[in-house]
Amino acid sequence: MMEASITYKMDWRIGPQHLSDTWYFINNGKVDDTYTGLVYYESNWWYVKDGILDRTYTGVCEYYDSWYYVKEGQLDWNYNGLVEYEGEKYKIENGKAYLQE
Hints:
Blueprint: E1 12-14, E2 23-27, E3 30-31, E4 37-41, E5 44-49, E6 52-53, E7 59-63, E8 66-71, E9 74-75, E10 81-85, E11 88-93, E12 96-99
Antiparallel strand pairs: 1-2, 2-3, 4-5, 5-6, 7-8, 8-9, 8-12, 10-11, 11-12
């Protein structure tokens, strides 16, 4: 399992009432809409796109020179199999993705 060594300070806040299901990635007190990638929060790894938790994303994601399989916005440590992402094939072993040559 990967260690939680995030360089950003994690701070989640629920969005305004009209966006009640939206979770934002906060960095230094502001929404960081430049960040896309994995974040660690409450014992889980989540996929964030442009500063917003994306629960619809399924695919692979790079994090510190390693690739991982994300299903419905959350890193899936239990998945084993093959996936295709952006024209490349990846073998997934316990959530970690390996590019197939």
